[in-house]
UniProtKB/TrEMBL annotation:
This is Pentapeptide repeat-containing protein. It comes from the Bacteria. It comes from Muribaculum intestinale.
Amino acid sequence: MKLTDKQYSNQVFKRTSFCNEGIAVWWTKKKFERCQFLGCDFSDVLARGCRFIECVFKGGKLQHFSMGGRTSVLLRKTVYMGCTFENVKLRSLGIADFIGCTFINCDFNTAFIAASFSKCKFVGKIYGCVFCGPKFDSYYYGNKLSFLVSNKGRLEDVDFSEASLTDVDFRGGIDLSKVLMPHTTINRM
């Protein structure tokens, strides 16, 4: 399905494929408010400078969705505010800010390089991921501009209390003083 409008409110997308047969689909400065994405396929979609407000992502294919890119003019990041992600694979968060979001039973087997999380809650098993902090690494960012635009892996008021962390690492100077860790033991492999 091709989205031609710039703004969508209260839409329910059920088992919708947004991919274009292997050709990249660019979503630039689109705004989604209170939309539900249920079992949707986001393969090869790149969100640049988009806003997702109080949206629900449940099931579907998000592992090949580039969730956060910046626009070249005005350097707008993609922002997710008050969104819920449930039972999805997240692999390419890019330069995105997640504010007040809830992640329930998501598969995070990835490194969070330039994504930031503020007032977010993680529930369920989290396995094999790395949260990277503010230390610049050109291998991950590609260029200095991408580094400057990102929030450099910030974790602020993040709640992992209902999560089970296995083989999860926090690197590059992440401040864990405002992070609520799980009540159970952190498992290391």
